[in-house]
Please model this.
Amino acid sequence: MKRLLAIIVVLLLFSCKNLSHNNSKNPLIKYSIQAELSGISDSTKIVLTVIDSRNFDFRKIDSVITTNGLFSFKGLLNKPEESLLTFYDLKNKDSIINFFPFWIENADLILKGNLNKIEITNSPLNSISKKFQNFLEESRFKERKELDTVTTDSIRNLIRNKYNTQRRIGIINLIYKYPNNFVSITELIKLQLTISKDSLQLYYNQLNGLLKNSEKGISLHNFLTSKRLVIGEHFIDFTARDLAGNSVKLSDFKGKVILLDFWAWWCGSCHFQNRNEFPSLIAKYKKDDFVIISYSLDTNKDLWKKSSLDDNITWVNISNLKGMDDPIALINKKGIVIESFLGYDPKKNLIEKEIDKLLKYN
Model:
């Protein structure tokens, strides 16, 4: 998982000033999808999935079997959704033929073309999304072309860094050029830690009421209004629940050295730490005032539970199932955040070295 500097998630999720989502203020959207695609056999199954790309959460909502290349979906959703069509070949052990990412919105979407090139009409959100896709595809094409001309790793890394920076700036420019829609606010939230607070506030101020009251609008508002805790400051208390439903507060462990770890089911390095580093830390400091608190950033309890069992997490393991992302933070016995850790390197033992200092190990 990409770890980010400073302990922000505690405040973003649990600040007493945070707004809560209220679906009653947002009317249901009615969508329909009518597709006519060439080159698709009648044994093709299409699954419609709603995606939360930031939290790697996928929710299947419908499926159909094609007839003469024709298929359709219709239904109701609380809001426009980033979505995915997955095409399966039923005659070949349900192997995946192709994917098609798009946005569901309050419109009658029309899909035409073939599996290699699907075009959507009658869809303002997908027209905006296409501008982002075209920009990224063009940038990646130029990057590949330039990389093909060099063989030195150091130069290749410089080229990659150059294009990564260009893409970030280009996406931000598109966000501010086409601001008042679900596509742009979704892209903005992915990059909000790289954008100044003043610029984010300007973006938020021009949002309409529907977007401000959406989950993403509320998330952006909370990010803007929440105080960001930094190293050297006292932790902000919060409450979450363990898998059994018991309420747990961070302040319950006051007086101990706390290793507060944020993880998720989709984070590979997190699983490695859960299975290797953390059990060894618990064994080493079992007689000391030390505790590990794993805070799951998952939004799906079943995935959180399965991952916890797979990793054999026996220490404090809590969540509010609201997503987000953040670093590991180390809190001393006085409740002061003294360090955060970006990424994970099993060879350096950075966390163990800091705990040794706090517990005065020689």
Summary: The chain is about 35% helix and 30% strand. The chain has three domains: 9-15+229-358, 25-122, 127-225.
